[in-house]
Write a structure and sequence with these properties.
about 55 residues, mainly alpha, about 0% strand
């Protein structure tokens, strides 16, 4: 099958615009989680993985 002008995606013909400066964080880094927070996150993840998925999600 030969390629025609209709097969060309013209959106790919232009360079990607520069990333927004709003996408980059400046300033303080995020604080590391405490042991209690890590434990709680592991427990919540375990519960979420065991729970059956619902159609509302």
């Amino acid at each position: 099958m030969s390629s025609t002008d209709r097969d060309v995606d013209h959106a790919l013909a232009y360079p990607e615009p520069p990333a927004s400066s709003l996408w980059h964080r400046h300033g303080a880094k995020a604080r590391p989680l405490t042991d209690a927070q890590r434990k709680r996150n592991r427990e919540l993840l375990d519960i979420a993985q065991r729970k059956p998925r619902t159609a509302a999600a």
